[in-house]
Amino acid sequence: MADDVTPAGDVAPAGGSQVESARRGRSAYPHPSSAGRSANMKANRRVDTKPELALRRALHGLGYRYRKDFRLDLVGGVRVRPDIVFTARKVAVFVDGCFWHCCPEHGSQPASNTWYWEPKLRRNVDRDRAADVALGQAGWTVIRFWEHESIEAAVAAVVGVLAKARAEPRAASGEPRGADSGNR
Question: Under 8 Å CB-to-CB from 140, ≥6 apart: which residues?
Answer without folding.
Answer: 72, 90, 91, 92
